[in-house]
Amino acid sequence: MMSASTELKPEDCNCFVVRSAARHVTQLYDQFLTPVGLHVTQFSILAKLKRLGPMTINALAKEMVMDRTTLGRNVQPLERDGLIKIEASATDGRAKELHLTKAGEKRLVAGREAWEQAQARFESRFGAKRTADFRAMLRAVVASDFAAGLNN
Questions:
Q1: What is the pTM of this model?
Q2: Virtual CA dihedral for 40, 45, 48, 52, nearest 10 degrees?
């Protein structure tokens, strides 16, 4: 049994702190992207498709470090609004590929300006050096892949 002095507090839990920070940062970006009609995750999906070209849902989920179900929930409004289209893969008829549409490219351009404003706000409040260090540290966390193999 843990004593009260050694009991783990929420602010000492790595997962809680990372998720809280992620929600906080997401809210900032969403505030800037809302007038453009996008959430930050949707903006990221459009940007990935622009940069990497058409992709299957599974490939995009892996690229975005998201589970397929969460990605699907973010893709539905993008398809409904005509920003992406889902088609059978040319190489595998069973797989569905996501394609960025012209309307999606146009929305991405509009979103880019809002995203840049969010980036600037974050950096102005957090500091340029701390912001760069923060990104480097988070990239190192992702690269460490310490969760790999837990289910084996």
A1: 0.83
A2: -170
